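[retry 2/3] Acetyltransferase (GNAT) family protein: previous attempt timed out, resubmitting with same input.
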Amino acid sequence: MVRIDSEHVDFRMLAALLDLDLVIRDDDDHAFYAQFNQIESIKELVIAYRRRLPVCGVIKSFTAIAAEVKRMFVRPDYKKQSLAAKALSELENWAIELGFSLCVLETGKKQPEAIALYQKAGYRITDNYEQYIGIDNSVYMNKPLIVKP
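[retry 2/3] Acetyltransferase (GNAT) family protein: success.
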């Protein structure tokens, strides 16, 4: 697991692959969601490598107490190997180090594998937040972070 920023070449490649996947899943709604997924100036990214192929995830400040999880992506040929769960755990640990006590995220109903990952990791579905209020395809989730002794 490597902590990087948004300039890292592997992250840029994964972000492009994720965007291609989301264009297909989101269809006509993609432009709406894309405006909230800009990657410039993101400082807290995690990349995990499996046989030199990367998996990514991002956290960014959402509120004074909450970090937002974004841009989680595993290449299709590396799914079901616990890589996303490990990357998510690392992001949560980093969020704790940065002083956050809550992680929030938004995903889509057309991403059932993402919803399952987050629920397995202890996230619960709650009301949509800010820009996603009233958006039927959006699923908002959060998880209190527990500081480990």
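[retry 2/3] Acetyltransferase (GNAT) family protein: The mean pLDDT is 79.
[retry 2/3] clearing retry counter.
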